[in-house]
Amino acid sequence: MSSNEQFANTAVKSWKMAVGRLNDVLAAADNDKLQREVAPGRNRITYLIGHLAAVNDRLLPMLGIGERLHPELDAAYIDNPDRALPDHVSPEALKQALAEVNDKLTAAFEKFTPDQWLEKHASVSAEDFAKDPSRNRMAVLLSRTSHVAMHAGQILLVK
Q1: Count of domains in the chain?
Q2: pTM
Q3: d(CA 58, CA 56)
Q4: The domain containing residue 48 runs over which residues?
Q5: Which of 8, 14, 72, 76 could form a disulfide with 114 if both were Cys (CB 3.0 to 4.6 A apart)?
């Protein structure tokens, strides 16, 4: 296995580990816990689930994987803070949407070659990518892996 393959495999494995930990944390949370705030006056766990589903859903077109699965989540979980809009999606439906998005991402990530990871993503222009080739798919994967891990840690600490 080449160094590039090993690096790409390590990054995908880190993604899968972060998503797996999040799944474990959410599976252990009952409906009462899902309504709790991660800190006083902060987001509820339910909001974070919807937020992760919506943000990760945006990766599908950004990374050239396909069309979004749940653009309807943007208004409540990206464009507005928690509680700005009424809860219109159940916690179970949010968990299902998150799992669906993450499963589709993971399946695609496992198929990318090392060279594909180093290609530009759809949110960067060809000119900007030529100036800074680190604005590639791998950078997005690393950033989103950290994002998932951060929110999983917040959820885990909720008592």
Answers
A1: 1
A2: 0.96
A3: 5
A4: 3-157
A5: 8
